[in-house]
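Predict structure. Chain length: 193.
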Amino acid sequence: MGALGYYLLAVNGIGFILYLINMWLYTYTAEGQVDKFLTITSLAGGSVGILLAILLFDRKAEKGNMMSRVFIACIFVIQVIIFLMVKGHHADNITFAFWKFFTDYKILLIYLGIINFVAFVMFAIDKVNAAEHRSRIRIVTLLGVAFIGGSAGGLLAMYLLHHKTKKDYFTVGIPLMMIMQVVVAFYILNAGW
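Prediction complete.
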């Protein structure tokens, strides 16, 4: 294992421990004390350790922890792609020809159209249900549909319908998901399969 491997092992171990400390602090204080360190650690490559701690010890999604989960999930996907690119898992010639790729693989373009339409409709239904005081669509469901490709539809619905525009896990999270999806599309375009 080279220097990169040892670094990733260390930073993910630190991320795992910091997340557990943060959980403990939130249990006994009004506010966690290491949120900024968790953000820095995740950006430094520790998102796997943090994600592992979440999956093992803190699976319950709540409004209070939703932004950190969205952030960690998006950073994790981006870091996996960066790792694969650094390790050489890409085509010899890097390209940005997204439109050509989507015209060659129309099924992916159709999927993105459908999932963005579904996301828009789900946000619209949630908006109507909120106005009429009916049962709402869960936040995790709305974010999940945006995460798997419906971020553009979700963002469009948010601002056209003025819905969820005061929640950071939507106003910051969905644009972050869009960035993540562009990175994923870029990798798929250049995977060299």
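Summary: The mean pLDDT is 92.
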